[in-house]
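Lecture notes, part 5. Sequence design as translation. It can be helpful to think of inverse folding as translation between two languages: the language of shapes and the language of residues. The source text, in structure tokens, appears below.
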């Protein structure tokens, strides 16, 4: 029986809690601890709070306590999964390097200054960054790039749909557009009701249409992606990785 991969989670907001639920119930990883901004629920079990029957310790710590107790030395893990904020990496990066702990960052956006720091950290430990860590979205991007290579003459449209109150253009849509060399201004936006998130790459051929789409049904989709990333990143050498790096080998058909 393979030993479970030990993971620690940064961030316990709505998405972080959904991710924690997926990790805690996985047979492949053990959620050792969770770090959040607040002192509330400190030293409680995240699984108990979420109402999940799981063996994972998942002890909750505050960010301040994490720094003072040097959690990575006292409670080492194989992988840190970060769903906090773009400054979160500053709280654990040096200890992660010192303990040879891999990092999976699911932060949706890094300013240039913070991204430079992320890439410096990746020179000393294995680090994966994905603004949208769902397996489906990253599959969509690779499959779309493959189709564009096959048929570069097609008309390509990028459509993104989100809940009515989301004001800004989707970062995931921008990533898809960049991968396909489509100007961000050409992305079609739809805002309606409580749509969690849907992205589509539409390829208009002369006599047929191909649509590659992905729809998030719940935030647990991010947990599935983080789990996939954690299972692969801890086996890789030092360096900077994306979900595309992990998924590309699966595009080789036997």
């Amino acid at each position: 029986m393979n030993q479970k991969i030990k993971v620690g989670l940064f961030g316990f907001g709505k998405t972080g809690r959904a991710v924690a639920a997926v990790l805690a119930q996985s047979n492949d990883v053990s959620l050792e601890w969770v770090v959040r901004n607040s002192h509330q629920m400190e030293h409680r079990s995240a699984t108990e709070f979420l109402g999940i029957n799981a063996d994972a310790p998942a002890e909750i710590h505050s960010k301040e306590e994490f720094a003072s107790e040097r959690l990575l030395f006292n409670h080492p893990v194989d992988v840190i999964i970060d769903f906090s904020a773009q400054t979160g990496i500053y709280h654990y990066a040096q200890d992660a390097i010192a303990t040879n702990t891999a990092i999976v960052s699911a932060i949706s956006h890094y300013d240039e200054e913070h991204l430079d720091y992320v890439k410096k950290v990746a020179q000393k430990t294995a680090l994966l960054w994905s603004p949208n860590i769902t397996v489906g979205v990253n599959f969509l991007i690779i499959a779309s790039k493959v189709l564009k290579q096959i048929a570069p003459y097609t008309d390509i449209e990028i459509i993104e749909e989100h809940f009515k109150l989301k004001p800004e253009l989707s970062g995931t849509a921008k990533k898809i557009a960049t991968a396909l060399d489509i100007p961000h201004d050409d992305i079609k936006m739809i805002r309606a009701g409580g749509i969690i998130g849907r992205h589509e790459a539409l390829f208009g051929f002369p006599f047929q249409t191909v649509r590659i789409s992905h729809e998030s049904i719940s935030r647990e989709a991010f947990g599935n992606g983080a789990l996939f990333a954690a299972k692969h990143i801890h086996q890789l050498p030092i360096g900077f990785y994306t979900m595309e790096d992990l998924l590309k080998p699966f595009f080789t058909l036997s």
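The translated text above is only one of many valid answers, since several sequences can fold into similar shapes. Residues 77 and 213 are 35 Å apart (CA to CA).
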